[in-house]
Amino acid sequence: MSDRTPWLVVERLRKTFPVARGMFGRRVPLYAVTDVSLAVARGETLGLVGESGSGKTTLARCLVRLETPDAGRIVYDGTDVLALGGAALRAFRRRVQIVFQDPYGSLNPRLRVGAAVREPLEIHRLARGQEAHDRVAALFAEVGLDPAYRDRFPHELSGGQRQRVGIARALAVGPECLVLDEPVSALDVSVQAQVLALLRDLQRHRGLTYVFIAHDLAVVRQMATRVAVMYLGRIVEEGPADAVLATPRHPYTVALLSAVPVPDPATQRRRIVLPGDPPSPLAPPPGCPFHPRCPHPQKDDRCRQELPALDEKAPDQRARCHYA
Ligand SMILES: Nc1ncnc2c1ncn2[C@@H]1O[C@H](COP(=O)(O)OP(=O)(O)O)[C@@H](O)[C@H]1O
Ligand code: SF4
Ligand SMILES: [Mg+2]
């Protein structure tokens, strides 16, 4: 798809955390995000999927400048995001907002939810007084919440309602792009479907660009136009959603997809259960990081020694595997 004009571009992003090990508290790097490159077009939904601990939240937090990467570049609408400061950084924060997995954790428990949605309007000096009040009412309506709920506290709402508050709070500043970090992972399946439908409506009406994170390919399938699969801090496969989901190239994507139920059980793929857990990001395996768990029949010494490049395996579809 050569007409995909990149809007949000990530180049070779790396983020490590120094963590204390052993009795003397020696600090060693934990490789949370390694060499991640991505390009998202305007109005598109990039679905980012991977097991817990694969680096999704760290990447999301880097994208919105809540975390500073060690290396790499982030370019948004032609602007070098990591070089921004002062007024330009504040303007960027209005354009790109993040929605967290757990709105209960991200909402102040002592602040009524109406005030939580109003807060960003005041911080960014977008509205005050009656105008702010009216804007909050409009945002509540837009996310499908009864405006009468504005006087409630977070614990007085259901999980789905709290996530709607989290979305309204992100929308308050009129962003163009939302980074959605597992926005439905904490919700029941029926409530998940409602919140996903809301997100699709909002995207259509507001022309939003989404980076949509999930640990579940079934959820990503409902949202994404492109998919990137992360394993141990790296992108191992990336491409158009329909291609990646119909013809996954990386053995890890194949395994993830084998666990996703399909409408017609006759076409269900044989479920691939990977042995063990992902290795520690404190000591990523040499060679292909997936080799200790990879079920590919051709796996060999090359896999144990040589890191595969993220190469094009089909038009516009890349995978990090020697034998994909
Ligand atoms: N502030 C931090 N300090 C140390 N390690 C961290 C920190 N944040 C995340 N990590 C580690 O980085 C790795 C990736 O975590 P995370 O980005 O939260 O993954 P995911 O969102 O995919 O579950 C994990 O091993 C996690 O423990
Ligand atoms: S490079 Fe080797 S170990 Fe890695 S995914 Fe491909 S076949 Fe498996
Ligand atoms: Mg996470």
Description:
By secondary structure, the protein is an alpha/beta fold. It has one domain: 3-Layer(aba) Sandwich (Rossmann fold), CATH 3.40.50.300. Helix content is 32%, strand content 25%. The protein contains 11 helices and 12 strands. The strands form 2 sheets. The chain has an 8-stranded mixed β-sheet, with helices on both faces. A 4-stranded antiparallel β-sheet has the order 2-1-4-5. α4 packs parallel to α6. It is globular, with a radius of gyration of 21 Å.
Distance between the termini: 21 Å
Broad structural category: alpha/beta
Domain unit count: 1
Bound small-molecule species: adenosine-5'-diphosphate, iron/sulfur cluster, magnesium ion
Spans of 5+ residues with little confidence (pLDDT < 50)? none
- Please work out how many helical segments DSSP would assign: 11
Q: Mean of residue pLDDT?
A: 94
In a nutshell, what does this entry contain?
This protein is of the alpha/beta class.
List keywords for this structure.
324 residues, Rossmann fold, eight-stranded mixed β-sheet, binds iron/sulfur cluster, binds magnesium ion
Give the helices and strands, then pairings.
Layout: E1 6-21, E2 26-41, E3 45-49, H1 56-63, E4 71-76, E5 79-80, H2 86-95, E6 96-99, H3 103-106, H4 113-123, H5 129-142, H6 159-171, E7 177-181, H7 189-206, E8 209-214, H8 217-223, E9 226-231, E10 234-240, H9 241-246, H10 251-258, H11 301-305, E11 311-314, E12 317-319
Parallel strand pairs: 3-8, 3-9, 6-7, 7-8
Antiparallel strand pairs: 1-2, 1-4, 4-5, 9-10, 10-12, 11-12
Helix pairs in contact: 4-5, 4-6, 5-6
The structure holds adenosine-5'-diphosphate (ADP), iron/sulfur cluster and magnesium ion.
Iron/sulfur cluster (SF4) is lined by residues 251, 288, 290-291, 294, 296, 298-299, 303, 308, 321-323.
